[in-house]
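G.,

No rush on this.
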Amino acid sequence: MRDSIDFKNMDIAALFRKLLLPTVLGMIFSALFVITDGIFVGKGIGSDALAAVNIVAPLWLFSTGIGLMFGVGASVVASIHLSHNKPKTARINITQSIVVSSLLLMCTSTLFCLFAPQVVHLLGSSERLKPLAVEYMCWFVPFSAFTALLNSGMFFLRLDGSPNFAMFCNIVASVLNIILDYLFIFPFGWGMFGAAFASAIGTTVGALMIIIYLSRRNCALRFYPVKFSRNSMKLMKRNVGYMCRLGSSAFLCEVAIACMMFVGNLVFIHYLKEDGVAAFSIACYFFPIIFMVYNAIAQSAQPIISFNYGLNETLRVRKTYLLALKTAVGCGICFALITIFCSREIVAMFIDRSYPAYDIAVKGLPLYASGFVFFAINIVSIGYFQSVERAKYATVITLLRGFILLTLCFYGLPLLLGKPGIWLATPLAELLTTLFILIIYMGRKRNGKENSISLQHGNHAKEILQEV
């Protein structure tokens, strides 16, 4: 059932709540899957298995990032076309995004699986962890296209006025994951294969639910037949290129988490060996959960901002952004306090006190949590720039926080502060990025632009995206 949503006239606070509640609930269930997957792997297989999953995790984040990139890009341009009463063009946009992203991931997944030992070695695996990492990778990576579709489909369902069904897709996928995870790891004793296969089945079922929804004739946003004429292919190439530019920062946000895991794994294994990687893996299980909530807030604001941006409703856009920012900061404070005061309980969920990684993680998590509030500001700000077609701002901020500053902090802080510096690398990178965003804001304020959105590119999507 489609929900009663009016992006143009509905009160911003009520509209934001209507989108936020089901989006956050769906993300919470996804977070529960991530947590329970880590618990089952740690308790059922061991700390080496946790470390092996952390080695392979960047590949999962890659497929998630592809889904978010095409989801954000297609939903922004589709929002603008819907605000201009062009549903056919919006349908073409989402169809093109799903087809191209699926084909792309089928190709990359095949390459990853064909060269699995070499890939896990490049991701920083030691010889001790390599067999576990290869086993997990070969049973999960082939389903990457469904992982991407589950992520991109959330944007299309919410834009179509069905945030509750989007939430339901996430819940079904997550609950199925949790049940199968337990069955495959404990009663069946399938080890890493069971953990990977359970995740693959859950995401595939959630993606198939989205396909069924978008195939229905009574949906405003639904699949549209793809044409293969030469002119149609040229237009598709141009459309997809523009969608990728708009959503590139969403992809880079996921790749940034992968970069954090990759560089972190290298630094932790250098200073603290495999036990350090196992401890870091607990933080890495926890970090995407925080990201999911912040991302849910940004994704809830995105269709409101994009739709009203297409109508030049500056005040509604600004109000939505500020509301999303306040919500994210409040959540960031809560997450930081919970992590700081409950670090022992959090670590104990994943591994027993007998493992050396336990003490390493207990000492490190409170330091790691000090950056959660800055992370909230950065993610919501990136989402805002995406929604108003300011892809360059969003991309620069993402590259700064997720790659440049992060890498410098990971390698520089341990030299200055020792082992605590490894845990403080991510918080410092997020803090410096927040300061950069404030510099952008102050520069715009000095130019007298703080109360308006530049609309010089307002019709860019209209000029580039044409009906096939």
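When you get to it, here's the other one too:
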Amino acid sequence: MEAIRKGGREISDQVLIQKVKSGNDHAFRLLVEKYRNDLFRTIFAVLRDQKEAEDAAQEVFLKIYTSLPQYEDQGFKTWITRIAVNHAIDVKRKRDRRQEDTLEIVEYDFQGSQSESVEAEIINKERRTLVHKKLNELPANYRHVIYDFYIAEKSYQQMAEEQNVGIKTIETKLYRARLWMKKHWKEDDFS
């Protein structure tokens, strides 16, 4: 049974959980202190973004707090880790959907006016499909930086702030992504 030290004595998770269930918010703060680093690392492993992971960790602790009445002594750390992983996956899916939606908007703008011929519309659709396919071929660490720079048209500064890294790191990632594309793609691939 896992326990934390408080004032020279150990308090088990089960005791803290019972206190939280009976309305003791201080007991929940002790649980948060005990598990916040573990949950943050778990969430960060899925999201790979510090700010998103911090926000998601706060949301997870809220979920844990509101779900505690349903907890049935099945291994607290395992239970909260499962909540954290599921929430992180949901956040990642939403983020990916937002990127896809943005890409569709950019593609729609690229499509041009309604007066285009049916042939031009079909060619544009094929080109968009090809761009999607090619973006998905990129390794994940390159796909994000290429998407942000070329599709979302973010500056190095914006990207560095969002990823919580230096501008030089963004420059290096873009440089390596371009090298990867030159090595693995041919110009004929896009025609």
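The longest helix spans residues 76-111. The beta strands are 3-6, 9-12.

Enjoy the weekend,
O.
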